[in-house]
Design goal:
35% helix; nine-stranded mixed sheet; globular; 17 helices; two-stranded antiparallel ribbon; Rossmann fold; 484 residues; 2 domains; signal
């Protein structure tokens, strides 16, 4: 989640399941491949190639169009394979161009022989990003004021949010494939991108050679009903601290401190003064329960960040909130709005996911979980503003393309059980688990090599013993950082 706008700053922005499975619409006859243009994007020193593809705004009502942006990182070898790797980012709300540094790290071996194509989903990045500027007083606004500003943002965009669905995004990908002249493509999806990848593979099975899905969402997964998985990740972090002597000595009352913080914030927000990172002037900052639990949830996504959590909790319980606020703000460097397109997140989750969040499911999911119901309550307040109709869920068809599923054992939003559920609807799926991994593991250890080996021979088993060599991060015990 990005801190930028009120829509982003107050939603936990987990990935979201995609619910619409319809027959693929006819696509235009093949045209000569687009050559594209030379472009430079943040995070890459080299020149890349960019293309813009015009697609229908509403596939059911041809007429108005929207421009979809794709970035191509050409294969290093001149004799590139004919099947590129399409990269689909998460959120929903991230663009492929937003995660270029991650893609370069995870796909560096793949790029030796294949083009890497990063697609900006409609409503993100350079594909007509749905976003608003952050109010300057964001850190002192109440939750009611933040939600009111989010509604103002939504109303000011002047778009029909019903056109921003997972189904439309999947059809956009097919138009990009055709525009670039590829016969078949491989897919890498991360987080929500796994939902989009699976949907595309079901709509256009002949277009997909193989899939790599990292942080896999099951088709029947209802987000934001993620309390069970988030609590399991928090408990795992607490247990590891308790088992490590140095961490246990530094934070002997960790669980009690966490519970006391949550109880205190449930009674009333905490207001502190801290130095503005740009001006060094003291400014007020409000920490609400919603901000607290959203930050804890985000910290758990990365194992390296999760191992700072005991220190952050202990410091906050002692009245020193600055480290916690710094972590909360880290997604934005205070110089620009963050990358996540919050209104797109709302457009998709309010249509495809929130309608399935029954009172019974919400109660069961919140029971015993630190996430509770603040996010669901906020969605109930914001969803009417986007004005989208519920998208009916249909039983998904089997996917025939070979798939490599990647999971982090400590993932707070798409743990291994979600990948196992998705695999049951696939003809050929290999599932690898990184025991010391969190949410998204493609950049860790030997995983980039395994991705390359799988794509070179999708029908062969991947030898994954090297995953056990990926170490757990060190706990941060004080302000000096992680212990040696």
């Amino acid at each position: 989640m990005s801190r930028g706008h009120a829509v982003r700053s107050t939603l936990a922005l987990p990935l979201l399941f995609a619910a619409q499975f319809a027959l693929a619409a006819p696509v235009p006859a093949s045209a000569p491949p687009q050559a594209g243009r030379t472009c430079h994007l943040p995070g890459a020193e080299e020149a890349l190639r960019c293309v813009s593809v015009q697609v229908p705004l509403d596939y059911g009502k041809p007429g108005k169009t929207i421009t979809i942006h794709a970035t191509i990182a050409p294969a290093f070898r001149e004799a590139a394979r004919a099947d590129p790797l399409f990269v689909l980012a998460g959120g929903p709300g991230q663009a492929g161009s937003d995660i270029l540094p991650i893609a370069q790290a995870a796909m560096r071996r793949v790029r030796a022989t294949r083009d890497i194509v990063l697609v900006d989903q409609r409503g993100t990045g350079l594909s007509g990003k749905l976003d608003c500027k952050s109010p300057p007083e964001i850190d002192t606004m109440t939750e009611e004021q933040l939600d009111a500003d989010a509604r103002r943002c939504i109303g000011s965009l002047g778009v029909s949010f019903s056109s921003y669905t997972t189904d439309a995004a999947a059809r956009d990908i097919e138009r990009v494939r055709l525009a670039l002249g590829y016969r078949q493509v491989n897919l890498w999806g991360g987080s929500y991108g796994t939902r989009l990848a699976q949907h595309y593979a079901r709509l256009y099975p002949a277009s997909v050679r193989a899939m790599v899905l990292d942080g896999v969402a099951a088709p029947d997964q209802v987000i934001p009903a993620g309390g069970r998985d988030a609590q399991a990740a928090l408990e795992a972090t607490f247990r590891r601290c308790e088992k490590e002597p140095a961490c246990a000595r530094a934070f002997p009352a960790l669980r009690t401190e966490f519970a006391e913080l949550a109880a205190r914030l449930a009674r009333a927000p905490v207001r502190i003064e801290m130095a503005d990172p740009r001006t060094a002037a003291l400014r007020p900052v409000t920490i609400s329960l919603r901000r607290f639990i959203a930050t804890v949830h985000r910290v758990l996504y990365s194992q390296a960040d999760a191992y700072t959590l005991p220190f952050l909790i202990h410091s906050a319980q002692g009245g020193r909130w600055e480290p916690f606020i710094a972590q909360s703000n880290r997604d934005s460097d205070f110089s620009a709005d963050g990358a996540m397109a919050g209104p797109l997140y709302l457009a998709i989750v309010c249509a495809e996911d929130f309608p399935r969040l029954t009172p019974q499911l919400m109660a069961e999911d919140a029971r015993g979980s630190f996430l509770g119901t603040p996010l669901v309550t906020q969605l109930a307040a914001l969803c009417p503003a986007v004005g989208v109709k519920p998208v009916a869920y249909a039983t998904p068809a089997r996917i025939d393309a070979p798939a490599l599923l990647l999971s982090g054992a400590q993932d707070p939003v798409t743990p291994p059980r979600r990948a196992e559920a998705a695999a049951r609807l696939m003809k050929s799926a290999q599932h690898l688990v990184v025991k010391n991994g969190g949410h998204i593991v493609s950049t860790l250890g030997c995983v980039p090599r395994l991705i390359r080996e799988f794509l070179d021979a999708p029908g062969k088993p991947v030898a994954a013993q090297c995953l056990d060599d990926i170490p757990a991060p060190a706990f941060q015990l004080n302000s000096a950082g992680p212990q040696p």
